[in-house]
Every structure is written in structure tokens, then in C-alpha cells.
Amino acid sequence: MEAETTPQISYRPLQHFGDVLRSEYCKLRSVRSTFWALSAAVAFNVAAAALLAIFLPGHLSAHDKATIDSTRLSLGGMHLSQVAIGLLGVLVITSEYGSGMIRATLAAVPQRRLMLAAKMTVFAAAAGITGILASFAAYFTFQAFLPARDALRTALSDPGVLRAVAGGGLYLAVLGLFGLGLGAILRSSAAAVAALFGALFVPQLIVTLLPASWQDTVSPYLPMQAGAAVFSVRHEAHTLAAWAGFGVFCLYAAAALGTAYALINHRDA
Amino acid sequence: MADARLALVRFRNPCRQTLESLMIEAAGLTKRYGTTLAVDDLSFSVPPGHVTGFLGPNGAGKSTTMRLILGLDAPASGSVTVSGQPYAAYRRPLFQAGALLEAKAFHGGRSARNHLLCLALSNGISPARVDKVLELVGLGSVARKRAGGFSLGMSQRLGIAAALLGDPPVLMLDEPVNGLDPEGVRWIRTLLKALAAEGRTVLLSSHLMSEMSLTADRLIIIGRGRLIAQTTVQDFLAAGSGGYVRVRSPQASALADLLTARGAAVARQAGHTLSITGASCDAIGEIARQNGFTLQELSEHQASLEERYMEFTGDSVDYRAAGGALAPGRN
To answer: Which among A20, A33, A269 has the least Cβ separation from residue B122?
Structure first.
């Protein structure tokens, strides 16, 4: 059969991307897990900040209070909220592979990289907005529950504090994208969740087995340590500066997403 | 009733081409999974205006072929086009071809309407169209219910709704009647026939022969990934060893001897019943009259699609093509 020239309606790439964005936004907002994961991220942050502000001041000496990173302390809930955001990042893509929906998705959008880019964009926006919200909510909760005139008090105008609080939100968003990348590579919820939290927590344990000098060299570059720099105000000798650390953390996520981007066109769905 | 519903299918398709060029065309498709050849040098074409049945035993490669058509899997060699282009080359493919691959391929937590809306938005299809196809497949009343709670039959309807979103000229349905109740089976048969009558290309896979014989008018038969036959249902049935004449008579034994003497093949069955090939109803009736035999039954039976299919594929263990006429281009 001779291939006739197809009278396609004129193709506008931006409009096409817009359509796929709308589709991915529809997917994200129409499942309950999104609501729960994002709510949990905020709730963990706020609850942990309140508890820390209520119980911690009585246990710390004046010297402790003077040297501790109070802003990072107020973001103590991140340990839990990162789990919620990370899970959501993974599920955004692996739930499609798990259910078989991915074949309907790719039949509707055969331009797979466009689909992946739209998914990333929509998720990054949702996780970024929620992360920053959760971070500021934690900071203000912490301040509100601290005793008046406590030495742990800080102001957003203090050096590095605003950056650290906003950085907490960015950390969550990039962590979620790291999960999305691993999910797109591994295409299985269980495998990707294990890989994500393995990458965050396991290297830290392994490093403690190394000689002390090696620890100081390697540990700043581990994903979680590097990422934590952006929501810390005080940086020690062997931690990276805020944006340098965040940059390293972004590289991990970029490596995962880049691999997924490279692979997606070459695999059977 | 069905006609009134079908009117809802009407929808302005901006990518509509002349119907004559709309079809699926596969050339030398080959797909390997590890060491298994799932599809082996498969060439066929699905013309517009017909329901083409895609037949083959489980594992014959039907679903793999459909995934290859949709560009979900990449062939090791060969190519397949939908209306002249590879499916994945289309920017808004839902307007070109609609497919139902798996019934339960959706997120169980999403409502039926949201599931369709997510797919529709990616191709710039309006929410109004989503509501229309939901009505068309009879899911209007449960549109906002979680799809995870749907029965298999409702899931099939949701899958069919997704396939119809873009009002495409080409439809591919993998085992769509699985899990449907008799009313549902009848509905989809009417729908597919009507869509084909409008000039659309309909490819329907099933291993339910009786359903296939009622719905399809053309057949593509594959086994072990290879083309066995590409023909019309009519030719396929006619080319077989075909029908027989069934006779019931109190003098069955004497009649059998007479017919055998005249060169017919007679199989004796229980209850004075004979199955006769090689003699027509007319001839048998005349012989019975001349000899004063009483006939309690004299009926002609055509082989069913299922019998013909078993005859065709069952004998050859490796499903090799049996006749040149039925498998053009292969030997």
C-alpha cells in the first residue's frame, strides 16, 4: 500500500506538551495516594517541629543551644516526610507499570520521552510546592512552640535561615524526582522503593566501616549528606557548602532521570 | 436501541483520511523474547470495512502482534503500519487507532471518568467526549465510581470506551468479550459490525470460535507466531472437508449398506443415526423413497468454525500452513 501523505492537523510542539502535561496532572490529582503522601509530608514536618520545640529546649545546655543548628533542628520532620515524598515519586511511574496502564499511556502518547518529561514536570511542581509549604510550616511551628526568648530562636532574616528553610522544600522535591527516576528505570514499586531508600540510608552505614580520614572525604558526597547541606545553616569542615551539596544531590537525581530517559525508548512497554 | 447509541460515536475526527487507505499492514514482523520466537515473519493486512478475526491458540502471538502494531514492543525485524504510517509516528494517535489490550489496565483508585479523561487530555480530546463514550459503553451511571471495584465485564467496557475516545478509523480489541454477559457480548458484536459497516478497520482477537463466527467476516489465523491462513470466514469454511448429512431412520442399517454401495461414506451412530458424506440430501431422500424406508430426520450440517479450525490446526503439531491457497506467499 502506498503511504499517502497524511493530512495531519498542523503540529505545535508546545501545545502537544501542554496536552501531555494536562494528562499527567489529571493522573496525579485523580488518585488518593497523592493526597495522602503530600498531606503526610506536611503533617510529619509540622508535628515533628512542634514536638521538638516543646521537649528539646529543657534537655539542652546553654552551650548546646549556642552551637546547635537550630534551623535544621526545626526541620527534623524531614526524616519522615522524605519517605512520603520519595514513595510518591516512585509510585507516580511504577503504579502505571504495575497496573498495565503504562500501555494505554504509551498508546496515547508514543513520544515516550515527552511523557516522561511531562510526568517529571508535574511531579516536580507538586512536590516542590508541597515541600516548601511543609518546610516553612515546620519552621514557623517550631518558632511558635519554643519558649519566649529561648536561645534556639532564629529569624528568617538571620544569615542562611531563609535559604535553609526553602532548601528543605527543594530537597524534598529533588528526592521525589530521584525516586521517579529510579521507578522509571526499575518499573517495579518494590524494587524502586528499595533502591531509593537503599541509596539514601545504606551508604551512610557502609561509610562508618571505613577509616576516619576516608569517611571525611567520602561522606559529604553521599546523597543524603550532600542534600542535607541545603537545609543546614551551620556547615562543618567536612560537609559541603549549601548549594554545592544540593548540586551533588541533584546530580544523583539527574543520573537516575537521565538513565530512565535514555532507556525508555529502547524497552518494550 | 443499539442504533440510537451508535449515533453517539459520531464525532468530528480532524485526522480522518479517505477510508480506502485505512488499514493495518504488517510485513515480515518478527519478535523474539529471549530465545522464544513470539512472532515469526508475520505478514498480513487488515482491510477497512470488515471485522477481521485474529485467531490462534493461547500463546500464538496475538497479543504480541497487537503490541507491535501499537509500537509498544519493538520488532526484531519487519514493520507494521497503521493507515500508512508507523503508529508511533502519530502525534495524536488516539484519532488514528483505538486499542483494548488488557481489561484491567487502569489504576484501581481512579474513577472511570478520570481514567478516560487522563488519556483523552493527552490527545486534546474534550471532557464532553469522555462523557459521551462512557454513555456509549453503558458506564454513564458508574462514571465517578472507582474503577478498581469494576467487574471484568465493566472493565472491558471501560477499555472499549478508551479505544473509542478519538473516534478512530482503526480499532484493535484483544479478547473484548471475555467476562461480558450475554447482553454485553451481543452489544459488542453489534457495535463492532456497525463500526466496520461505517468503513472502519476492526481487528478482533478471540479464541471463542462461536463468537468469532458470528462477528467476523475475515480471518487471520496464526499459530506459534506464524501466519497459518488469511482468508474470509466463508472461504475458510467452504475449503474444509465441510458438511455432512445426518439421517435418522428405523432402517438405518439397511440404508447405510445401500449408501455405502453407492460410494458414500457412512458413519453409524447410536440411536439409528447416520452421518453421511459423499451424498446429498436430495439423493439420500430419493434412495429412501425408492426403497420404502422411513426417514425421521434428514438434515444437512455445515462444519462450524470451531470444527474447521480444529481440523485445520489440530492435525499439524507445529501448525504448519496446510495449503497454498490459504496462506499466500508462504510454503
So the answer is: A20
Q: Between chains, do A108 and B93 touch, taking CB under 8 Å as contact? A: yes
Place of cell 507499570: A97
At B22-36, the pLDDT tens digits run 589 999 999 999 888
In a domain, A11, yes or no: no
In chain B, which among 85-144 make CB contacts under 8 A with chain A? 85, 87-94, 99, 101-102, 104-111, 114-115, 117-124
pLDDT per residue over B243-269, tens digit each?
788 899 999 989 999 999 888 888 888
Structure-block grid coordinates of residue B118: 487522563
Q: Say whether pTM exceeds 0.90.
A: no
Please tell us whether the domain made up of B2-238 is placed in CATH 3.40.1010.10.
no
From the list B18, B75, B98, B80, the residue with the least C-alpha distance to B44 is B80
Task: State the nearest Cα–Cα gap between A264 and chain B, in angstroms.
Answer: 11
Model confidence pLDDT, tens digit, residues A152-193: 999 999 999 999 999 999 999 999 999 999 999 999 999 999
The CATH number that domain B244-301 falls under is 3.30.70.100
Is the CB of residue B146 less than 8 Å away from at least one CB of chain A?
Answer: no
Are B2-238 and B244-301 the same fold in CATH?
no
